[in-house]
Amino acid sequence: MNLLAKLEKKSRLFGATVGSVLIVCVGIIDYLTGYEFAFSLFYLIPISLVTWVAGRRLGIAASLASAIVWLFTDVAAGHSYLRLIFYVWNFLIELGFFVTVTLLLSALRRALEHERALANTDYLTTAVNSRFFFDMVQKEIDRAQRYKRPFTLAYIDIDNFKTVNDRFGHMAGDQVLRSVVKHARKYLRKTDVVARLGGDEFALLLPETGQESAQVVLSKIQREILEGMRQSNWSITISAGVLTCVHAPHTSDEIIGIADDLMYSVKRENKNGIKYSVYAG
Q1: Residues 150 and 90 reside in one and the same domain
Q2: What pLDDT shows up at residue 2?
Q3: Which pLDDT tens digit goes with each residue over 84-95?
Q4: Is residue 18 scored above 80 in pLDDT?
Q5: Which of 76, 94, 119 is the last residue of a domain?
Q6: I need a surface site. Which of 32, 121, 140, 158 has the fewest CB within 10 A?
Q7: What is the pTM of this model?
Q8: Is 125 a domain residue?
Q9: Are 203 and 126 in contact (CB under 8 A)?
Q10: Of 91, 119, 147, which closes a domain?
C-alpha cells in the first residue's frame, strides 16, 4: 500500500511517460523471446502503472498501445496466420483483456479514494474530521517552515447551540451544524479547509493567508452565518479565535491550542465576536 500511495503522488505526465517507455521495453523483450513464448501478461505492468497514476482514459490508451505493440511484435517475430480475421480476433482479445484490467484498476482506485474520503470526513457536515485536520495543520506548519509563508487558523464555536437543540430538537441542531459549514465554504478557496473538531466547534485552515486577508474572509463568513441563522429564526452567533502564523510553531497542538484560547476569551466576554492574533515565534 505504501508503493501505491507513492505512485498516487506522481504526476499524470510521469505515469504516461514511464508507462510508454515500459510498453516499448516489454515489446522489445516480447520480440526477442519469439512468438512461442507467451509474453502478453507482462504488458499489464505498464498498463497498471499508467492507469493508477494517470487515470482511466490514459490507461485505456496504454491498453490500445500495448495491444498494437503486442500484435506488431507477434508478426515481426514470424508468427503468421492463415486469414486476416485471426489477426483481428487475437488483437481484439488482447485489447479486451488489457481494457478489462484497466477498468478494474480504475474502479479499485476510485473505491479506495472514496473510502479514504469517508475516513477523513465528518458524516454530518461533510467537513473534514479532527484527526485529519490536525494532520493537515502539521503539514502546513512544515510547509510554512520551509517556504517562509504565513498561514492562518481560525477556531470557531457556535454560541447558543444548546438552546437551539433544547428548543427545536436535535434535527434542527444538525441543520445548524451543516449550515455553518455551507456558509463558511461560500468564501473559502479550494486550498482552504473547514473542519468539525467535535460538537459545535469548527476550525478553518487558510494557507498562505496573512492577518489582513484573514480578517476580510472571517468577517464575510461571520456575516453570512449570522444572516443564515436569522433567516431560520435561530438565535445563533459565533465566537472565533483567529491566529495568523508568521513564523510557524512546531506542532499542530500548539497552534490549535492558542486559537482555542483566543476563541474562549471571546466567549468569556460578550460572545458573537472574533479575536485576532499573530504568532511571530
Answers
A1: no
A2: 63
A3: 888 889 899 999
A4: yes
A5: 119
A6: 32
A7: 0.71
A8: no
A9: no
A10: 119
